Amino acid sequence: MVQKAKILLVDDRPENLLALEAILSALDQTLVRASSGEEALKALLTDDFAVILLDVQMPGMDGFETAAHIKRRERTRDIPIIFLTAINHGPHHTFRGYAAGAVDYISKPFDPWVLRAKVSVFVELYMKNCQLREQAALLRLQLEGGGKGAAGGSKEPSGGILAELSARLAAVEEQAEALSKQLDDDAADAAAVATAAHLERKLTGLRRALDALEPGTGGPAALPSQN
């Protein structure tokens, strides 16, 4: 059973959080509320999120400052941030949002369909990365456990396990290819395209490592980095 992705919604106004939940409920993911920058940072200490929707105008720690803290933490610096703002002070204000690490900057009122579509792209990328990590973990277990027989001798990796791993990886590869094509067709955000390309590179490395386990290929290869 695939675990749902978590989406962090940060806004000091309850009615805005309620509106975001109504818009994103169709994605059928886990929506987590935070009513301040401090509360958002606390949530990020314990949970992993696919994307953060962050209001700019908040009392105390505003969106820009909150984003700066998020990007300084190794655990959270790669989480995509979409800024939401009710004001527009021109290009300089927008530039400040991107400089703070946002992948997008949307002015209110926004088109609900557009926002949902943008969020869904990052959710899909997050889920594919989770699947890739699972496949890498299974392959690592096979590499560690398949190299020794019961009496300490060499043993070829189980054909059944290899076939299952290959089938699972093929499914992720197919989904990642479809997502990349969708991003190209839609002229999506540069950050989303770059993330998809990084995912494909990791898939290629994992496929090579898996192929190296096939009988007669010379033994196991090193697993690709999952960073």
From TrEMBL:
Q: Which residues carry this modification: 4-aspartylphosphate?
A: 55
Please state what the protein is called: Response regulator
Show where the Response regulatory domain sits.
Answer: 6-123
Query: What InterPro entries does UniProt report for this protein, alphabetically?
Result: Bact_response_regulator (IPR050595), CheY-like_superfamily (IPR011006), Sig_transdc_resp-reg_receiver (IPR001789)
The record, for PROSITE patterns, names: RESPONSE_REGULATORY (PS50110)
Report keywords, A-Z: Coiled coil, Phosphoprotein
Q: Is Cell wall biogenesis/degradation found in the keyword set?
A: no
Q: Name one Pfam family in it.
A: Response_reg
Per the record's keyword annotation, is Coiled coil included, yes or no?
Answer: yes
Q: Which residues form a coiled coil?
A: 162-189
Q: Which organism is it from?
A: Streptomyces ossamyceticus
The superkingdom listed in its UniProt entry is Bacteria
